[in-house]
Amino acid sequence: MNAKSICTVCGNEFKYRRGKLYCSNSCKTKGFNLKKAGISGFDIEKPGESYNQARTTFYLSDYNKVKHQDFCSFELYCFLVKNFSDNEDVEFLNEYVEKIILVDSFDSDIKNNQHPIRKKYLQFLEHFHDGTYKIKKDRPLENIAN
């Protein structure tokens, strides 16, 4: 049996190993830093039910609510929320994104061509720009969580 796990930080698949949550030491460190930063509502060890969804649509109205847009392009925002359901609470998503981009090592990791998260980001950008994902101005009312 070739069981697979999903890294709770970068979303990479890796060979299942009992008790392992991360695909690499780098992601393990990142996970520690995220927990230390106090990401509320997202338990790194047990992602919520809305995590690991096949999201296909992103909303400009969600991104416009991010406080630190100078650190986070729309493409990066979409990359960071791509594993959450379209129905996830916007405030939660934006708090999650802001905490990640403010972690000390994130900026250098996303720019480092050897880092797994950079490789995942570049793959995401290819799909983002080839029309795989839809970009909409506003969320439909039925997708707005209270």
Brief overview, please?
This protein has helices at residues 25-36, 60-63, 74-81, 90-101, 106-111, 116-129, and strands spanning 4-6, 13-15, 57-59, 134-136. It has 146 residues and is mainly α.
Low-confidence stretches: 40-47
Beta-sheet strand percentage? 5-15%
Spatial strand sequence of the major β-sheet: 1-2
**N-C termini distance:** 41 Å
Task: Say how many strands there are.
Answer: 4
The SS-based structural class is mainly alpha
Overall shape: it is: globular
Biggest β-sheet strands, sense, barrel: 2 strands, antiparallel
SSE string, helix = H, strand = E?
A: EEHEHHHHHE
Work out the radius of gyration. Answer: 15 Å
Helical segment count: 6
Task: State the main characteristics.
mainly alpha, 6 helices, single chain
Write up what this structure looks like.
By secondary structure, the chain is mainly α. Helix content is 38%, strand content 8%. It has 6 helices and 4 strands; from the N terminus they run ββαβαααααβ. It has helices at residues 25-36, 60-63, 74-81, 90-101, 106-111, 116-129; strands at residues 4-6, 13-15, 57-59, 134-136. The protein has a two-stranded antiparallel ribbon. The protein has a two-stranded parallel sheet with strand order 3-4. Residues 40-47 have low confidence and may be disordered.
